[in-house]
């Protein structure tokens, strides 16, 4: 016995009496015609009486059946018996893929996209629980699948829907919040096939409950393939959109300290970037700042045009050494997760810099004076002048940068230590001069591009004096080191005169080493300053002296000090900040086994008082590595390291949300249809989503009855024509009118 | 100049209520259109001259006129045919049906009056029998011009009755008019066929020329009804509630059989038979009559 989706409509079956009623009324309202030739009429009636009766009866029954069919189509009968199973309706499996990316926190009025999504899931659960047929339920959150190391974490997997299911689902949903990840639907769709396989013994309905942000569907090929695969497995796809429109949203997309020498008391530029994802300009935007938990003066941005990013800089002078944290916040808007951003800055007491020179140390003194002029000009740099032997016998890790100043020769161990230092992120500055040996430079430091020297040299060369002074000796290229000179004619740089320099082999300039960049040239076009990255570190080679011997740069020329400080900032800029980590992606921290124990303690953001248990660092290539997997929240993660000497120290890691996750541009039904052409799916809005009739478990007979109704109506027309009940021809109609 | 044939159509003639006027209009209109008179015969009473047309008998050319005017004219005389014609007009209930301009009854009476007028105009003796289940009124044969009034009066029946069989009527006519003559039957012939054919045969055996004008309404011949309809017999108590379109084909088949039987019976008895629709122009009956008379005249 089938059940009905809209059982009260069955009262409509009483309408099957309507054709009989119409027939009776027609019998009452017949025309009376006095007729002479009754004899022939009676003869005809006598001959055809049986056939006429049969035709009329058949027509009446067909009309009654048509009325009944219309009522049944509206009432939606569902077959749940063994017969229904033959149609494929044995078990229904509801698979809900819930988008819990932080854009689902999109809030309006007294609801949010995520609340809408939960309401949809509750409706599905409630209706599934109300069915008599076996039901199963699976709930997969976007953020819980496709994770690199932790694997998938399924909230509900093939849970049988029973009497207690609805209450259990309700409890579970109460605890579910939007994550701070920007996870897309791809991984969840892949998980459906991986976990559940094909739909051999069940009817599967996959609900994709999401906000359908445009950025997630811009490259739909893979998504389309996944959905096609699910549909080809026999599952039905329902896409439920939980937002009605795009709302304006501001997001802090970047917060970082400018590269440069950082030390206690040295001002550091911090850049904050705010993007307007809305359709109208945002005016008077305040960015609230916190430095180590203490509020700082807010940064005010006058206007951010729609779709634009505005960057503001502010100075921070850290009073203490060690890890520092900065937090930037925006005022409340529809999405909260992208309204704050964190950054950690490692501020040392000072910046030790090693200057390698000979005993006379003329270059070292000139450079040292430029890097640490003393007095009120605090640079935080502490130059240490040593001879080349120092490189072989002392550890170099404490230094942020090393300068080789007209060094004639280094032994192999010193070269190896130097290369190791640069590989690990250190900066190396090389200045040449009278004592520099091109053979050493080429054979030991350059080594055909494998060494730290960014270019080969041939030997000292003279720069002919330009008596007319038509062009300055030094010509700089756009580069961070010379950024302060960009865009204006700087009289200090133009007064620099270079008399001697190290020339490069002919043709090198045309085909430089990979990564090498000439950032300053002489008047004759010869490279003067060349930079090149070397693994994690950077190298800057200046092909003249640091002291004013081959040039006059260091002699009372302020541009020399500025350039050297910027060079130091460039060389030291690689280190200091923690990794730029994203919510949901693991953070990796390698430990020095000689210095730290293998156990660490990880404090999640906000865990100030609770002392979490110790975590054993995993071993990778023999070295302990802390893998911080559970980065589900944005904020500052603190990792407490225990030194072998019994002390402990902390490393802070700032984890932030995906910057473009705050883009709330969303797809409507037609745009989605364009992207998913060929995929069979049903698109619905969360507000109007209902447990559709087609979702009724069992085999819904409505469609079959509809087809039957169409055939029945066609047959009715044929029989009506056969029984001469069709409208008369125009001539006959005229005759009928005349009779009246 | 008004068209003299304008009164030949039923729609036009229905506007003239007086039957004698109707007859005069129809006959005069009908005759005025003819080039060559089919019935001006030999008589002593000269009527008029008419210009010779091809086919006229040369015996009637007036040579004196030719001698004077060099033109051929023929002389025409009043016909003295001594024809005795009995008009049998059906005035039964079944003749009251009609949804066109005229009912079968009106159409039949008009035809009868026209024939009477035409016959009296040429000095023939005309009698009339109005009948239903039996002869209602019998008008004897007369040749007076004002005899038309008697005939028209005889056909005026306000309360029609049924007709069950026509044989007694025809037998009465055969016995009433023993001398050979012409009998014209105007009826819808909705009677039992054996009696009809027997009566016609009887008339023929008595030497009468018999002519049958079978008057039927368009509805009876085409049966165009649609929608739920209750048919009630005009002469019987039968009634039938039906969907007419379902019965139409059977009806037409039965009607066709009936018409074929009547037509064959008439042909077999050498009875001149004409089926007339009430929508047809009225001169059809006159033309048929004159055609029949002409053939009889030539036979004689």
List descriptors:
heterodimer; A: 740 residues; alpha/beta; Rossmann fold; Immunoglobulin-like; 8-stranded mixed beta sheet; 6-stranded mixed beta sheet; 16 helices; B: 300 residues; 2 domains; two-stranded antiparallel ribbon
Task: Please outline what is shown here.
The complex is a heterodimer of chains A (740) and B (300). Chain A is α/β, with parallel strands linked by helices.
Detailed description of the structure:
The complex is a heterodimer of chains A (740) and B (300). With 740 residues, chain A is of the alpha/beta class. Chain A is built from 16 helices and 37 strands. Chain A folds into five domains: 3-83 and 701-739, no CATH class; 90-240 and 667-696, Rossmann fold; 250-348, Immunoglobulin-like; 351-572, Class I glutamine amidotransferase (GATase) domain (Rossmann fold), CATH 3.40.50; 581-656, Immunoglobulin-like (Sandwich), CATH 2.60.40. Chain A has an eight-stranded mixed sheet, sandwiched between helices. With 300 residues, chain B is of the alpha/beta class. Chain B has two domains: 46-77, no CATH class; 84-299, von Willebrand factor, type A domain (Rossmann fold, 3-Layer(aba) Sandwich), CATH 3.40.50. Chain B is 41% helix and 21% strand. Chain B contains ten helices and ten strands. The interface between A and B is large, with 37 and 42 residues. Strand 2 of chain A pairs parallel with strand 8 (229-233) of chain B.
Question: SSE layout and pairings?
Answer:
The complex is a heterodimer of chains A (740) and B (300).
Chain A: E1 3-4, H1 18-28, E2 31-35, H2 38-75, E3 77-79, H3 82-86, E4 92-98, E5 107-108, E6 111-112, H4 113-129, E7 135-141, E8 156-160, H5 165-175, H6 186-196, E9 203-210, H7 221-232, E10 236-241, E11 250-257, E12 267-276, E13 282-291, E14 294-304, E15 309-317, E16 322-329, E17 340-347, E18 351-356, H8 362-371, E19 381-386, H9 389-393, E20 401-405, H10 412-423, E21 427-431, H11 438-446, E22 459-462, E23 474-476, H12 491-494, E24 500-503, E25 517-522, E26 527-534, E27 537-542, H13 558-572, E28 581-582, E29 587-590, E30 596-603, E31 614-616, E32 618-620, E33 623-628, E34 635-643, E35 648-656, H14 669-675, E36 682-685, E37 699-700, H15 702-722, H16 730-739
Parallel strand pairs in A: 4-7, 4-9, 9-10, 10-36, 18-19, 18-20, 20-21, 21-27, 28-35
Antiparallel strand pairs in A: 1-3, 3-37, 5-6, 7-8, 11-12, 12-15, 13-14, 13-16, 16-17, 22-24, 23-25, 25-26, 26-27, 29-33, 30-31, 30-34, 32-33, 34-35
Helix pairs in contact in A: 1-2, 2-15, 4-5, 6-7, 8-13
Chain B: H1 10-13, H2 19-32, E1 46-51, H3 63-69, E2 73-77, E3 84-90, H4 104-121, E4 125-131, E5 135-142, H5 147-155, H6 167-176, E6 182-187, H7 193-205, E7 209-216, H8 218-222, E8 229-233, E9 239-242, H9 244-268, E10 272-277, H10 283-299
């Amino acid at each position: 016995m089938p059940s009905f989706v809209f059982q009260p409509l069955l009262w409509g079956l009483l309408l099957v009496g309507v054709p009989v009623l119409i027939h009776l009324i027609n019998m009452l309202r017949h025309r009376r015609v006095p007729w002479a030739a009754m004899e022939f009429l009676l003869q005809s009636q006598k001959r055809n009486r049986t056939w006429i009766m049969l035709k009329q009866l058949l027509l009446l029954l067909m009309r009654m059946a048509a009325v009944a069919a219309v009522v049944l189509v509206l009432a939606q009968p569902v077959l749940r018996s063994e017969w229904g199973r033959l149609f494929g309706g044995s078990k229904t499996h509801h698979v809900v893929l819930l988008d819990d990316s932080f854009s689902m926190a999109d809030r309006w009025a007294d609801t949010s996209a995520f609340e809408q999504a939960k309401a949809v899931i509750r409706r599905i659960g409630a209706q599934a629980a109300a069915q008599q047929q076996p039901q199963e339920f699976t709930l997969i959150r976007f953020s819980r699948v496709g994770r690199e190391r932790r694997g998938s974490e399924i909230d509900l997997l093939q849970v049988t829907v029973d009497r207690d299911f609805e209450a259990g689902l309700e409890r579970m949903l109460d605890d579910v919040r939007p994550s701070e990840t920007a996870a897309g639907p791809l991984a969840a769709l892949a998980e459906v096939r991986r976990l559940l396989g094909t739909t051999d013994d069940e009817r599967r309905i996959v609900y994709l409950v999401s906000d359908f942000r445009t950025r997630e569907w811009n490259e739909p090929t893979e998504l389309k393939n996944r959905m096609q695969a699910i549909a080809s497995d026999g599952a039905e796809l329902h896409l439920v959109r939980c937002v009605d429109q795009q709302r304006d949203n501001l997001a802090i997309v970047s917060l970082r300290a400018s590269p440069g020498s950082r030390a206690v008391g040295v001002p550091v530029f911090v850049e904050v970037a705010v993007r307007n994802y809305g359709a109208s300009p945002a005016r008077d935007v305040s960015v609230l700042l916190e430095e180590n938990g203490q509020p700082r003066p807010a940064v005010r941005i006058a206007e951010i045009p729609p779709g634009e990013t505005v960057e503001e800089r502010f100075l921070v002078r850290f009073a203490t050494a060690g890890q520092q944290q900065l937090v930037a916040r925006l005022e409340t808007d529809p999405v909260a997760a992208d309204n704050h951003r964190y950054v950690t800055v490692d501020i040392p007491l000072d910046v030790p810099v090693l200057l390698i020179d000979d005993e006379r140390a003329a270059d070292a003194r000139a450079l040292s004076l430029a890097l640490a002029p003393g007095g009120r000009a605090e640079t935080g740099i502490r130059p240490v002048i040593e001879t080349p032997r120092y490189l072989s016998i002392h550890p170099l890790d404490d230094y942020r940068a090393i300068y080789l100043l007209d060094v004639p020769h280094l032994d192999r161990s010193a070269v190896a230590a130097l290369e190791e230092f640069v590989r690990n992120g250190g900066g190396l500055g090389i200045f040449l001069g009278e004592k520099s040996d091109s053979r050493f430079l080429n054979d030991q430091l350059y080594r055909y591009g494998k060494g730290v020297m960014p270019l080969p040299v041939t030997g000292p060369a003279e720069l002919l004096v330009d008596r007319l002074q038509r062009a300055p000796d030094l010509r700089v290229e756009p580069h961070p080191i010379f950024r302060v000179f960009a865009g204006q004619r700087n009289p200090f740089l133009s007064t620099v005169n270079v008399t001697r320099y190290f020339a490069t082999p002919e043709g090198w300039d045309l085909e430089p080493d990979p990564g090498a960049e000439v950032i300053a040239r002489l008047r004759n076009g010869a490279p003067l300053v060349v930079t090149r990255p070397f693994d994690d570190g950077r190298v800057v080679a200046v092909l003249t002296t640091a002291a004013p011997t081959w040039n006059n740069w260091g002699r009372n020329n302020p541009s020399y000090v500025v350039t050297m400080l910027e060079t130091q900032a460039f060389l030291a800029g690689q280190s200091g900040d923690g990794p730029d980590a994203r919510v949901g992606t693991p953070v990796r921290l390698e430990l020095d086994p000689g210095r730290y124990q293998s156990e660490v303690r990880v404090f999640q953001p906000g865990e100030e008082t609770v002392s979490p248990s110790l975590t054993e660092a995993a071993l990778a290539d023999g070295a302990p590595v802390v893998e911080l997997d559970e980065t589900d929240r944005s904020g500052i993660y603190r990792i407490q390291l225990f030194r072998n000497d019994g002390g402990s120290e902390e490393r802070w890691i700032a984890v932030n949300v995906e910057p473009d996750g705050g883009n709330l541009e969303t797809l409507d039904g037609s745009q989605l249809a364009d992207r998913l052409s060929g995929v069979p799916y049903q698109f619905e809005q969360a507000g109007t989503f209902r447990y559709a009739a087609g979702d009724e478990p069992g085999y819904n007979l409505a469609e079959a009855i509809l087809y039957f109704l169409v055939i029945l109506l066609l047959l009715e027309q044929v029989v009506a024509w056969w029984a001469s009940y069709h409208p008369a021809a125009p001539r006959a109609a005229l005759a009928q009118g005349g009779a009246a | 100049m008004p068209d003299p044939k304008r009164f030949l159509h039923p729609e036009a003639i229905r506007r003239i209520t007086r039957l004698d006027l109707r007859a005069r209009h129809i006959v005069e209109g009908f005759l005025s259109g003819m080039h060559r008179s089919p019935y001006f015969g030999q008589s002593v009473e000269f009527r008029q001259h008419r210009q010779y047309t091809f086919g006229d008998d040369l015996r009637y050319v007036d040579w004196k006129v030719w001698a004077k005017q060099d033109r051929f004219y023929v002389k025409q005389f009043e016909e003295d045919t001594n024809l005795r014609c009995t008009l049998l007009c059906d005035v039964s209930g079944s003749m009251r049906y009609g949804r066109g301009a005229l009912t079968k009854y009106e159409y039949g009476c008009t035809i009868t009056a026209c024939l009477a007028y035409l016959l009296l105009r040429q000095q023939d003796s005309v009698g009339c029998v109005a009948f239903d289940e039996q002869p209602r009124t019998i008008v004897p044969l007369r040749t007076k011009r004002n005899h038309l009034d008697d005939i028209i009066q005889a056909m005026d029946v306000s309360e029609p009755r049924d007709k069950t069989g026509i044989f007694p009527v025809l037998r009465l006519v055969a016995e009433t008019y023993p001398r050979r003559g012409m009998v014209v039957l105007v009826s819808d012939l909705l009677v039992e066929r054996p009696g009809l054919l027997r009566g016609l045969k009887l008339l023929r055996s008595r030497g009468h020329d018999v002519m049958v004008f079978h008057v039927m309404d368009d509805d009876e011949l085409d049966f165009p009804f649609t929608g739920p309809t209750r048919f009630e017999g005009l002469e019987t108590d039968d009634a039938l509630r039906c969907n007419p379109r379902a019965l139409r084909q059977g009806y037409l088949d039965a009607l066709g059989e009936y018409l074929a039987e009547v037509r064959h019976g008439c042909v077999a008895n050498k009875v001149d038979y004409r089926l007339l629709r009430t929508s047809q122009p009225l001169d059809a009956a006159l033309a048929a009559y004159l055609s029949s008379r002409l053939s009889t005249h030539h036979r004689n």
